[in-house]
């Protein structure tokens, strides 16, 4: 049985305009994690990650590191009970 988890992540720091969303998108695709990622109005990035626990954990770890030009100051991660099952991983604008 494939256990699926869903986590909402908020990343603060220098995470907009540095390729953060595309970096996470690429890792999510490699790990077969679905959901989305978007910039927020306060300068942070939010992501909804859905997949097997180890794969979601790998993407969460990537959020804590970020791409080379980013600076991650804080990451909040919350398990959520989703009302949908995501089929893809989308970069939202």
Q: Can you lay out the helices and strands and say which pair or pack?
A:
Layout: E1 5-14, H1 20-30, E2 34-39, E3 45-51, H2 53-65, E4 71-79, E5 89-92
Helix pairs in contact: 1-2
Describe this structure in words.
The chain is 26% helix and 39% strand. The model has no long low-confidence stretch (mean pLDDT 96). It has a 5-stranded mixed sheet, covered by helices on one side. Helix 1 runs antiparallel to helix 2. The radius of gyration is 12 Å and the shape is globular. With 93 residues, it is α+β, with helices and mostly antiparallel strands. The chain has one domain: 2-Layer Sandwich (Alpha-Beta Plaits), CATH 3.30.70.
**Which geometry do the CA atoms define?**
globular
Number of strands: 5
Largest sheet: 5 strands, mixed
Distance between the termini: 34 Å
Rounded average pLDDT? 96
The third-level CATH topology is Alpha-Beta Plaits
Rg, nearest Å: 12 Å
CATH class: Alpha Beta
Instruction: Output the number of helix runs.
Output: 2
> Which segments are poorly predicted (pLDDT under 50) over 5 or more consecutive residues?
none
Which strand order does the major sheet show?
A: 4-1-3-2-5
What number of domains?
Answer: 1
């Amino acid at each position: 049985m494939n256990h699926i988890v869903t986590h909402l992540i908020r990343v603060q720091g220098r995470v907009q305009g540095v390729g953060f969303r595309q970096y996470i998108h690429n890792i999510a695709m490699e790990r077969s994690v679905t959901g989305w990622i978007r910039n927020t109005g306060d300068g942070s990035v939010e992501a909804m990650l859905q997949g097997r626990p180890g794969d979601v954990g790998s993407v969460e770890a990537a959020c804590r590191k970020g791409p080379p030009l980013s600076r991650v100051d804080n990451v909040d991660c919350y398990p959520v009970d989703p009302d949908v099952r995501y089929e893809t991983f989308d970069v939202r604008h």
